[in-house]
Amino acid sequence: MADLTVKTTPIPGLLVLTLPVHGDNRGWFKENYQKEKMEALGLPPLDVVQNNISFNADKGTTRGLHAEPWEKFISVANGSVFGAWVDLRKGDSFGATFSIEITPEIAIYVPRGIGNGYQTLEPNVAYTYLVNAHWSPEAKYTFVNLFDETVNIQWPIARDKAIISEKDAGHPMLADVTPMEV
Fold it and tell me: Positive or negative CA dihedral for 87, 60, 134, 18?
């Protein structure tokens, strides 16, 4: 069992957490979010107001890349996903990327303005995220295309085999994105 850790990434403010998972013959248990312990290790304070779960029935379900005007704490309740992020904030790190496989032992802290996407690596995955602002139809999002060659995310499942919504497939290329002011 690994210790709880918080690590930085090439995208400023995007953090990877390693979560201790305790297992036995019945299954496993983890503290998915523990404010006091995680903040002591460098996680910014997160005033959670909503918990969302995205259930994905099929392997290859691909969602994103969306940057919201709030922070997120991402994990999976089961299974695994390939997570990918693109900095869509105005500044020197605009366009920087990071990717990692997320399993129950991994969580990600995503600052506002970072484009977030994922691809399921197996069927029946529950992807969960805590947010610090309520969803609103007036919220200002920023998007970038999942398969923009200049972003160059190395999705494990090719575009022609991925399950993508029309809306996500129609997101603009990075060259056409107006950076998010944060």
Answer: negative
Structural domains in the chain (count): 1
Q: Look up tokens 């990075």; give the residue.
A: 174
Sign of the CA dihedral running 133, 64, 14, 175: negative
As to burial, measured by CB atoms within 10 angstroms (0-12 exposed, 13-18 middle, 19+ buried), residue 57 is exposed
Residue 73 clears pLDDT 90, i.e. is over it: yes
Tell me: pLDDT of 1 over 70: no
pLDDT at residue 2 greater than cutoff 80: no
Residue 86 lies in a domain: yes
Give the catalytic positions in this structure.
66, 129
147-167 burial: b if 16+ Cβ within 10 Å, else e: bbeebebebebeeeebebeee
Whether 181 is covered by a domain: the verdict is no
Q: Are 151 and 117 in contact (CB under 8 A)?
A: no
* Separation of alpha carbons 156 and 53, rounded Å: 23
